[in-house]
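Protocol step 4 of 6: structure prediction from sequence.
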Amino acid sequence: MYSEVNNLLALSRKGDIEAKEELILKLKPLILASIKRYYNKIEEYDDLVQEGYEVILEGIKEFDETRGAKFLGYIKLKLKYHYLNKYKKVENYCSLNAPIGDGELEVLDTIEGEEIDPLDNLLKLEIGEELRKAINSLTKRQKQIIIESYINGLSIGEIAKKLNISYRTVANTKTNAINNLKK
């Protein structure tokens, strides 16, 4: 078989199309074995066989007998690495619709988006409305101290100086305001 393959290879390199076809047919079992071993996707079978033919045609052009390798061994490795690389490329990609676990969830369901969940948004609005009502129920002085403290970020001493009242009055008013807001 080796001498027959080598004769077909020599004729193929000289441009004999029939020799190329015969060589490809002789090597088809090697293509099928490589597909089965390294990239066994039955739904892509016909395409994989065609790719194997292309690898062999490329190998006919590239093979260098001066390197001491046998043509069949060279083609076998080319097919192996072709299908292994194809397998690696496929394995690196995952569909966002791929099922997870028992199949009730998809990969897409586990990805957090930057948009606000409608329920969270509703809760924030509701809490914000309650907080506005609670702040409006405070006295004018309590409201002023809460705003200066939490919105403007001033310390108790800075608020006392700004409003021209004692430190203790600001601290007591702030405490009372917080207690009223908690209620």
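Step 5 (inspection) to follow. The longest strand covers residues 99-100.
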